[in-house]
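[Solved] Which block belongs to which protein?

Original post:
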Amino acid sequence: MDLRQLRQFVAVAEELHFGHAASRLNMTQPPLSQSILALEKELKVQLFKRTKRNVELTSVGRQWLIHVRQVLDGANGLADTAKRLSHGEIGHLRLSFVSTADYSVLPDIVSRYRAAYPHVELTMREATSDIQIEALLDEEIDVGLIIAPNQASLHPTLSYLPLLREPLVAAVPTAWVEEQRVGFAGSVLEPADFFKAPLIVFPRRAAPAFHDIVSRYFAEHGMAFSTYQEAIQMQTIVGLVASGLGVALVPQSMTNLQRRGATYLPLAGHVPEVETGLAWRRSDQNPALDTFLAAAIPVDNK
């Protein structure tokens, strides 16, 4: 059976007259009758009761008509579905993001995208930049929000779009601030005071770009770089700071994460910046990716 036969069945079922149905289908009656007979033979079910004077649907025919109409409605919508898929209006997009993005660009991007394309299935997962790069190369995700990589080290099959540059601030234990009598919320922290405390930072394998920014800051001040504790989630780092284990350098947007026992202080002098952006495969032909990239760029940057 094919869609042609199903449409012929519906025409006969609605007209209950082979001649009228044939006229409606722009064909002659004999081929239509033969086609319906062939359909019944294939199904091994009688769909119509035929007499010389009238045509009626059998009980099975009446019930099957409901299902056939559903199939045809779906088939008729396939062309529109293909068009919407090609325009990125429906489909599936897999997004991954670093933990810091959840406190900066991610909420606005996702909000804009969902408002513009509510019928695209968007799946999200949190991961460090290195895991995201591997997932992109393995085609496990479509786009990633990552800490800006060194352009020389960016894989040649990937593209990168910067979204946000922001200064680093010091996350320090509130008790440490009070004990050291250095700075208070809203004041500026001298680098020399920051360097006195144990450092908590991302492991380099997980966030090489961010790790290098922090180590370079130490080198610029002639300080030996030594890590006291590592953690791969920024929320965990802030939690460790709040517990009094040490201090950390975090993106300014992390001040949106308020933790009892942790204080954020701006740093005096030259302050390093960290960049967050989008990475994706150059060869990716998913239309939903194109619409996502368009939605991710703020209006004032277009």
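(Second protein starts here: sequence line, then its structure tokens.)
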Amino acid sequence: MKIKKWQLQDAKNRFSEVVRKATEEGPQFVSKHGKENVVVLSMEDYHRLNPPGSSLVEFFQTSPLASVELDTNRDKSPARDISL
């Protein structure tokens, strides 16, 4: 798959083509000031990445980081010395 990159102005002027290519050829990357900012995806690609009905909880449960142990204890001391 050849990745297509568009400058923002070109993407705005040729938006129908960007959408068609996203549907037929795959994700289309749009850059602003030389930095990639957004990706235009087909609904098929979007649903593959974000299945309908999935929740944030399900996302975290299926994440590769789900088994990582986090230290949730926090320092209870004041953030700064409040004595004058």
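Accepted answer:
You had them paired correctly. Confirming on the second one: The longest helix spans residues 15-24.
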